[in-house]
## 1
Amino acid sequence: MPTYVFLLGMAAMIGIGFIRNALDGFPVHEPSREAMIGSGSVGIFLILRAFSSGCAALTGVEAISDGVPAFKPPEWRNARTTLTWMIGILAVMFTGITWLAHQYGAVPLAQDESGYETVVSQIARSVFGGTNAAYYFIQLATMAILVLAANTAYSDFPRLAYFMARDKYLPSQFTFRGDRLAFTTGILTLGVFSIAVLAMFGGETERLIPLYALGVFTSFTLSQLGMVVRWQRRKEPGWQQGRIINAVGATATAIVALVVGVTKFTHGAWIVVVLIPLLILLLRGIHTHYDEARRELASLTPVRSEEILNIVVVPVASINPVTRQTLAYARAISDNVSAIHISDEESEIQEMRDHWPELATDVQLVIIESPYRSLVGPLLSYLDELQKQAPTATLTVVLPEYVPRHWWEQILHNQTALRIKAALLFRPGTVVISVPYHLERHARRPPAVQPFQRRL
């Protein structure tokens, strides 16, 4: 609805303005105030600046190309029809507003000037004879279309980021769809960067136009060159004509990008000039990482279950129900299980030796004295020795882990299991299993179920 309201308002303003100006004999009104660009002589640099500013009005068509998959079938035909209408409406509206601005003396004003007014507002006030209902209709329609346009990036950028992540030029998180079937990571990323850019430029959108225009026309040039390469390589039907069209398009957009970059360099375009090479290096670095990971990816454990030689290690601190539960689970997945107790207290070590037979288990107890009260280091050294003795074996570390009733009770425990898991995370060929013991459930544990017994 905002789109149709805006188009209706612009059509009425351009039509009525043309008729009124024609009835008056097409007079050209002098500007009532000095323009933001000053009244200096018109030189080539000023013309180029005006050209680059005008080209910014042509941007937005890239939303069609990125959003082709969102159209109804046949997608390509509907997208082409939409793009044709978009170009036609843009040409009529841009030409009409430019002509009315010239006829009624509407000029851009500095935003810090008292009584600041946009060019469209000046035209509407002149065409409709003051700040009446028709004038405010144009203002509200413009505001509505700008709000709608601001949402375009949140529909388009996440989809573009998905394409790049699918091709391994962005982190794979950008391919994730949330429960609302939207690319959540792309939306959140765009939101964070938008806040940062608006804060840097003080919320003045006119200062952002050079960044936007240079980025858009650079991407236009690259995409057109990509089509030229595609036509040349594939030689599909109509490739000669298509190659010429895209080559002309690449040349035109490259000229615009160059003009914008030179004339708007000190107005903020330098940021894009610096950022684009850095972004290219970053994206290529991400792609290189994924390529290397794909080439070097090799399973450190056998892929067939009958080939797995599983050696299980259970770190134990004391003998209690948690230890019994963890040892029982470890013994159920392997016959080769050893329990390791690391301590620097002789009395604690002796107590563990005395009470271990009470478990009536065939699991071997290995005691390591750690004079420096280190836990992770001796455990890793023990695992290294096991790996040397059985290089083809898979080491599985089964960790007993307390789960308190409340989240804030976590601080009352030393988080030993968490420290061990963090240390083993980057150790190749090692599998880590946590056996949780929920403190609030031990008193009302359900009765044991026999193997393969169906719970009704």
## 2
Amino acid sequence: MVKLATTRRGAGPLLVCHPGGPGFSRAELADLGGLDATRELVLVDPRGTGATGPAETYRLDDYVADLDGLREDLALEAVDLLGFSHGGIVAMAYAAGHRQHVRKLVLASTIAAVSEETAAEMERVKATKAGEPWFAAAEAALEREERGDYGDDELGELWKAMAPMYFSRWDAARYGAWLESSGDGSSAAPLRAFNDEPFDLRGELPRIEAETLVITGVDDFICGPAAAAAIADGIAGAEVVILDGAGHMTFLEQPNAFRSAVESFLAR
């Protein structure tokens, strides 16, 4: 277990927020679509990123142990937990293994397992973007990322090349400033470790007892409606929200809809 560095943002009931990648710091999450207006966001730097720094291993169990250490540091018996992308994988594993310590669970743009359905959805969504001027560079960057063919100092530029694929409609003027800062504190080692180790959490999902919201974008090419449906099928009573006009970065493309759905769920 490593001690997680965090930053608090906003005011209101605490919401622990775990970013994705893996290998991205809290900078990726920005203000989560303005959730800091109603929640005190505890934004996490996962192991290997930001102020938390490098670790010896990057197994899923490591991330789960780190998260429970953070809960203890917060002196809370149960937390409201939001996991984005890879952070959602961590959040699912945590909620399955530490059921008594999660009050409400928000799974944002995440996936429990790669399946035929999610693979088909990926190819379908990517095909709709094939005519974009950035497409060839983004696809090449994604292929390099999957191969692990990059150095620690190349991840930032690789991310900038592939990032447009993660949006329903890429708008450099609107998202450029976020893109420049989103890779702050990022690290290649966690991402390489993740790509080398297959995962499948579908068998763990029935163990989750927390009230759960699954939210994603209709045009998310990696964690879209097919991934959301598989998660909801495994978690009793899970609520699903699919946002139109959004890809993977729901809280950037549709901030008002994202904030409204998450806050409504948490406030009940």
## 3
Amino acid sequence: MPLNASLPARNTAPRRALGLWGTLKASVALIRDKGPAGRLLRLTVLVATLTVGISGPAIYGAHKLHYIGVAWGVALFGVITVLLIFAAVLRAAWVLNAEHVALSRLRVEVQSHALQDPQTGLANRSHFMDQLARRAALADRRTSAPFAVCSLELDGFGDAAARLGEGAGNRILARAGDVIRDCVRASDLVARLDGDRFGILLEEIADARDIDVLAQRIVSAVPAALEELAAGAPPITVSIGVVMKSSGQDRPGEMLREADAALQVAKRRGPGRFELTAFAD
């Protein structure tokens, strides 16, 4: 998923975005800031405090001396000064909070992007290996149903991409990823590992026959979904290698290599095949 470049505009509808509590927190954070902005704001608040402190006795003295105009002038000066400083603090708080929201949103999108393959929107290899390591560690800590590691490859993709162009190749990869994801459960993880190779982490498998049904579904669904996109090129099929694990004694890289080895066995048997190695511990 590409980064979303449309960050929120600064100070857009700040009252709706902040609310009273957000404004107060942002104001306190700005006043406590150790940078130039914080020092300037603290100095401004000090000046406002001194202005109010001086204005009070001045108004009282002018009133006692019957200088009513002077008293009103000093009072008006004090009120305007305080209001201007309060407005400056509030404005600075809005700016600070808007920038914080924008940076937080950008940080989330960057982190999400770092875990995804940009062409397909699936998990990337790094995220897949992290989740595989997590699942392996979980298997070692408690007794649970076996899990499975799948390695998939699009047979004929290279020829199709060379004949149809890079744009068509990217659309084929994206469509294949969507179909594979639709074939598995929501709890399973589908990733694009590299090139035209995909991986699946099947969380809990009740029976090896479940994998057989899943593999048959993918082997049938992917070529049918790619017929239109790959028109004018040799048919694209998918080969699958699967390894079932009842524990996580192997490292994630070793588990994936076992699945890759099963994939090579499937490819030697012909396009559109799958090979299952059960309980390879």
